[in-house]
Amino acid sequence: MVIVNTDYISGKELEMLGMVKGSTIQSKNLGHDIGQSFKTLVGGELKAYTEMMNDARALATKRMVAEAEALGADAVVNVRFASASVMAGAAEVMAYGTAVKIK
Asked: Which H, E and C letters describe the chain, residue by residue?
C-alpha cells in the first residue's frame, strides 16, 4: 500500500475510489498523567504523551489502510492527520485521505 500526502503518485494514472479514514482515542493512565503534570512545571518534552500520540497516529493509519484495502485500493493519496483533545489526558487522532487504484 502506497501512502502519500500529495494528490498524485508521480508517473501513475489514478482512479479515485473514495475517502477513507481511521481514528482512535488514546489516553495514558493516571500514573503517567501525574508524572507528566510535574514535568510541565520545569518544562521539556512530555515523552509519555509523545509516545501516546505516535502510537495513536500509527493505529489511525493502520485503520485507514484497512478501509482502503476493503475498497480494493492500491494507494491512499492526500493523506492528512487531525487531532483533538477529548478530555484531560485523552486525544483523538484521525488519519484520512483518498483511496485510489493505480491504472
From this structure: CEECCCCCCCCCCEEEEEEEEEEEEEECCHHHHHHHHHHHHHCCCCHHHHHHHHHHHHHHHHHHHHHHHHCCCCEEEEEEEEEEEEECCEEEEEEEEEEEEEC
> Which pLDDT belongs to residue 29?
60
Residues in the chain with pLDDT values less than 70: 28-43
CB contact at 8 A, 77 and 14: yes
Q: Are 84 and 91 in contact (CB under 8 A)?
A: yes
First to last CA, the chain: 14
pLDDT score recorded for residue 83:
95
What is the Cα–Cα distance from 53 to 45, expressed in whole angstroms?
A: 13
